Records
---
Amino acid sequence: MEVRSEGVQVRCDKLQAPVIARTRLRVWFIRVCSSIVIWTCLIQLFTVTELWRSNFISGITSRIYHTNQRPFLAETTVAQAPPPYPPPRNYTSNGFLRVSCNGGLNQMRAAICDMVTIARLLNLTLVVPELDKKSFWADPSNFEDIFDVTHFIGSLRDEVRIVKRVPKKFNTKNGYSTLKMAPISWSNEKYYLEQILPHFSKHKVVHFNKTDARLANNGLPLDLQKLRCRVNFQALKFTPEIETLGQKLIRILREKGPFVALHLRYEMDMLAFSGCTHGCSYGEAEELKRMRYAFPWWREKEIVSEERRLQGQCPLTPEETALVLQALGFDRDMQIYIAAGEIYGGEHRLAQLRAAFPKILKKEMMLAHDELWQFQNHSSQMAALDFMVSVASNTFIPTYDGNMAKLVEGHRRYLGFEKSILLDRKKLVELLDLHQNGTLPFDEFSDAVRRVHENRMGQPFRRRVSDKPKEEDYFYANPQECLCEGTKCDDLLGPRNSSEVR
Ligand SMILES: *[C@@H]1O[C@H](CO)[C@@H](O)[C@H](O)[C@H]1NC(C)=O
Ligand SMILES: *[C@@H]1O[C@H](CO)[C@@H](O)[C@H](O)[C@H]1NC(C)=O
Ligand SMILES: *[C@@H]1O[C@H](CO)[C@@H](O)[C@H](O)[C@H]1NC(C)=O
Ligand SMILES: *[C@@H]1O[C@H](CO)[C@@H](O)[C@H](O)[C@H]1NC(C)=O
Ligand SMILES: *[C@@H]1O[C@H](CO)[C@@H](O)[C@H](O)[C@H]1NC(C)=O
Ligand SMILES: *[C@@H]1O[C@H](CO)[C@@H](O)[C@H](O)[C@H]1NC(C)=O
């Protein structure tokens, strides 16, 4: 494998880790001062142009989202022209890679990062990924309906060529055949170089019809790991429509103070799939079971909910969540943004949570109907809004560790180890049951809940590595290779085998 000496710089015009932030403060200060001077001149020059103004505003907002609580720093970056795309890499392409992503928005997001990395490793030309339209969410959106495709192609062109479609001359009429296949899950670079690359000498086009978790979490060369991050944190931007509306949600929330983004994964698909019916009526449990049987690719059909729950494999219910938030010490006045689709059981199931935290907010309540309607039937676009708000929140709390929880966690680590409370559901269920049957008074319950989560706040730690990929920490939840560019990572992450901190 070719190792390029210049490495893959994760260009960092955004804040990455507190350490960097401090050392860069001086640089920022100088930039701020010079920006103010430049700005003063500029503003004198352009006093009227409405067009210019609107570009300016969208420039600011698209950065604030990434810089999180630092709007001042964010605005200064606007003074610089947006960075031009890097010069394209000159390489001989070995063929075209077509990919059909599977799953929901965040699973596909991770897969897109992996596919770019594989295309780079094998010197391929990547075709803009196709998104899943047949998953549970049935969102007809294409890549360009969710992500800024021009930015995606342009910002990665120093690594890999990306095209919108396979050129006509490579179609079957001209004697080319496409090989359709799914690469083996959790593979490393050796597998791709030795097993996959040879296919391209026979078929000019190879089509991966499944993309989830096809690349190992660990053991890959550093430049590939960093490329995964670069795609995730820099090349994948949502469309301007999604960015603008997401920014608006964030602005509304911030104007009223700090807020928690609660990824309350108490949605029908989750409950049907996991078989978790704690707190549901008999009728609801039956409805969920029917749904589980209706989906052939959900393998497990007979599930004992209580067993699952005691193993910590169920999303917390809204009622359990209310108690846990109280135990963690959140104030009654805290704004709680529900980053989720429709809660199973609707308002009725949210009653207890709302009684404990009256400032419960959902995007449907915060935006006018005509602002949201264009996204309404596109679950991935709605999920993109929740993703943005979750990344920008003061505290992120997922009630289940699915793909959204993991990707947001990783994004927040990247922004400087922002607080994400990673609930230990197995311990919580024990404590909740003891509290609810009167064994554990609230004070003791609260102490215990806080103790359990002391080291589960998104602090720096090393990924847990295992022989079984499913048991190890997910790369995208903790992309440690990308979290402390230019600083001594070991200082921040602790000794190499401190993974048991978690
Ligand atoms: C790309 O590289 C090849 C071989 O190294 C060279 O002949 C060609 O001129 C390069 N093209 C550009 C645009 O730099
Ligand atoms: C990819 O291209 C580079 C030159 O740009 C070459 O050194 C490397 O061996 C190529 N790798 C593969 C897998 O073709
Ligand atoms: C992917 O393609 C292979 C080979 O054609 C096929 O056996 C497999 O069922 C396909 N998988 C999906 C998810 O379409
Ligand atoms: C969304 O789907 C529902 C039900 O299929 C339909 O009634 C509604 O008109 C759709 N809304 C939009 C904006 O397309
Ligand atoms: C409360 O629940 C725990 C375990 O769930 C059980 O061991 C204990 O006996 C129960 N206490 C009461 C008073 O029911
Ligand atoms: C790290 O692992 C090594 C070997 O397994 C062990 O000897 C050492 O004590 C561990 N260090 C820490 C800090 O856990």
---
Amino acid sequence: MRVRGVCLQLLFTVGNIIPWIGHRDAYICCMKMTPVTSIALERLRAVSLRPTRQRVALARLLLENGERHFTAEQLHSEAMAAGVPVSLATVYNTLHQFTDSGLLHEVIVEPGRSYFDTNTTDHHHFFCETTGQLQDIPGEDLAVSKLPSPPSGTEISRVDVIIRIRPNGD
Ligand SMILES: [Zn+2]
């Protein structure tokens, strides 16, 4: 695609990086500019993450499917189905970068088993031990009336409550 009469594609796709140069037209040149791509780029820019192709592609997948909880394996399967060539290790790394940047929350339901959550507002979860499903509990629906003092030299950054449930009779 030509922008101002000059094909910029080779300039801006060297390596795996799409440089953030603050000019919307440059992205139109590099990739199909859909509203979702545009929002994905905005989100990455807002948290100062370089918009690599893989980050943009994964952010797009997350945005296209609304608020939800998912595992790295699930997102990797979606990426494969969408023709995004990305390894599971890269998906893990990217999800942790998104989490560290505040784009996602990680919900650790048990050691070695975690879900990622696109809902980054303060809220809690029901976790069904039988189905493995997570369900949101709005933050205002649950009050924690007594918290212990945090260990010396630390402060509480967030309180996540997971209420474990199972079908009646299990
Ligand atoms: Zn949630």
